[in-house]
Amino acid sequence: xxxxxxxxxxxxxxxxxxxxxxxxxxxxxxxxxxxxxxxxxxxxxxxxxxxxxxxxxxxxxxxxxxxxxxxxxxxxxxxxxxxxxxxxxxxxxxxxxxxxxxxxxxxxxxxxxxxxxxxxxxxxxxxxxxxxxxxxxxxxxxxxxxxxxxxxxxxxxxxxxxxxxxxxxxxx
Amino acid sequence: xxxxxxxxxxxxxxxxxxxxxxxxxxxxxxxxxxxxxxxxxxxxxxxxxxxxxxxxxxxxxxxxxxxxxxxxxxxxxxxxxxxxxxxxxxxxxxxxxxxxxxxxxxxxxxxxxxxxxxxxxxxxxxxxxxxxxxxxxxxxxxxxxxxxxxxxxxxxxxxxxxxxxxxxxxxxxxxxxxxxxxxxxxxxxxxxxxxxxxxxxxxxxxxxxxxxxxxxxxxxxx
Lengths: 172, 222
Hints:
The complex is a heterodimer.
Chain A: H1 3-7, H2 9-15, H3 22-32, H4 36-52, H5 59-64, H6 68-75, H7 89-117, H8 121-127, H9 149-156
Chain B: H1 33-48, H2 52-70, H3 77-100, H4 109-127, H5 136-139, H6 147-168, H7 171-181, H8 187-194, H9 198-215
Helix pairs in contact in B: 1-2, 2-3, 2-4, 3-4, 4-8, 7-8, 7-9, 8-9
């Protein structure tokens, strides 16, 4: 196999399926005219692909598809196209997980908030900030860290804390 | 002047440029790809607006394409019909989602069909026992003394081996090969459907041919 043969290998395969443009076809034809090895290769490729091809669809196959449009229409969901993206399964799962987490954390969040209502005003104001901060030394009784409510809101999408509890504001 | 193209320059007579675009490599799809995509878009919008008849037009227009893509992977006509039905349903759902999310790139319906058909066929192949579409038993396995019958039997056996080998090709090679020889798609369209360059699709096709030859036990050229 010469260098020219090697260069035209891809073209030989494409020729068998009629995928060469005029210029490429002319170049390959000129080579085939002087290279019996490539002519034999072209013939083998053509035969191989001919064997690989399926026969045309039968009458039975056409008959089986006669009512395809009716079947497809019957399988389509009738709902109107929503304005917003419909939630995917993954989104629904995330929402459910977020709700569970939020429910658990909210239960823990409400109790300290009630307790903080009874504390001096300065301490309650600090607790209203929606930031996560390590417990300061000397405040061992406040080792619990307030959750990031922005994260909860985003993940759960429906969580809302009663503002009267003083547990911090929520988005919106 | 390039055959099939006519172009009038602006300014020659004040008229806007006129360009006639030839159709795709395969003429089996009727009108050219541009007018076909426009018809698809029109019917899709009509269906999304509630005109059910428009979807029937979409299905009938692309039925031959979808059948050509899935029938290699199915045992019976009923399986082919079911796979075709699922292809249309999934493609429609994909289009509806993409339009709902207002993606900037609006993929032509036909390209969704090809993508979905390729994926469903791949899954079907994975789930089903491999088989051949050339039932050798129909030709009889008893020794044929007639030379013509013997040749026919030999060809049928070789055909079965080759078609079986197509299903054993690496995924990308199989997809490119079958999109070309089954659906007769232009390589530009194959590339768009598979998300590769046209050159990559052509090289994959060549590799598929070589690999196919190895799988059926033919020697590669020296």
